[in-house]
C-alpha cells in the first residue's frame, strides 16, 4: 500500500524532468551566447579603437610636419624681408665644396 504523504506533489515525472533540463540547457546556452557576443563586441571595439589611435597619431605627425614646414617658410620670408640670405642646407653645400676641389686640382 502506498501512503500519501504529500510527497507526490514534489515527485516529478520523466517528462517534467526532461522539460526542466531542456529549459536549463536553453538558459545556459542563452547566457553563453550573450557572453560570447559581448567578448566579440569588445574585441571588435578594441580593434577599431586601436586603428583610430594609429590614425590619430599619423595625422598628428603629418600635422606637425606641415607646421614645421610653414615655420621654416615664415623664417625664410622674414630673412628675405630683412635682406639676409637664408643659409643653405648642408646637402646644398657639398656640391660647392666638391666643385672647389675640382677647380683647385685642375689648376
TrEMBL record:
Gene Ontology cellular component terms for the protein in this record: cytosol; nucleus
Keyword Cytoplasm: no
Chain intervals with Basic and acidic residues compositional bias: 93-107
One annotated GO biological process: cellular heat acclimation
Region of interest (Disordered), ranges: 79-107
Protein keywords: Nucleus
Main location: nucleus
GO terms, molecular function: transcription corepressor activity
Subunit structure: Homohexamer. Associates with heptad repeats of HSF1 trimers and probably also HSF1 monomers, and with HSP70. Association with HSF1 trimers and HSP70 coincides with attenuation of heat shock response and the conversion of HSF1 trimer to monomer.
Described function: Negative regulator of the heat shock response. Negatively affects HSF1 DNA-binding activity. May have a role in the suppression of the activation of the stress response during the aging process.
Family per record: Belongs to the HSBP1 family.
Protein name from the UniProt record: Heat shock factor-binding protein 1
Amino acid at each position: 500500500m502506498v501512503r500519501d504523504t504529500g510527497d507526490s506533489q514534489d515527485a516529478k515525472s520523466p517528462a517534467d524532468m526532461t522539460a526542466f533540463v531542456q529549459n536549463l540547457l536553453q538558459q545556459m546556452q542563452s547566457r553563453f551566447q550573450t557572453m560570447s557576443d559581448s567578448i566579440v563586441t569588445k574585441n571588435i571595439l578594441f580593434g577599431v579603437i586601436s586603428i583610430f589611435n594609429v590614425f590619430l597619431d599619423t595625422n598628428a605627425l603629418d600635422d606637425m610636419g606641415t607646421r614645421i614646414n610653414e615655420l621654416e617658410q615664415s623664417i625664410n620670408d622674414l630673412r628675405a624681408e630683412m635682406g639676409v640670405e637664408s643659409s643653405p642646407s648642408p646637402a646644398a653645400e657639398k656640391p660647392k665644396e666638391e666643385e672647389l676641389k675640382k677647380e683647385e686640382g685642375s689648376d
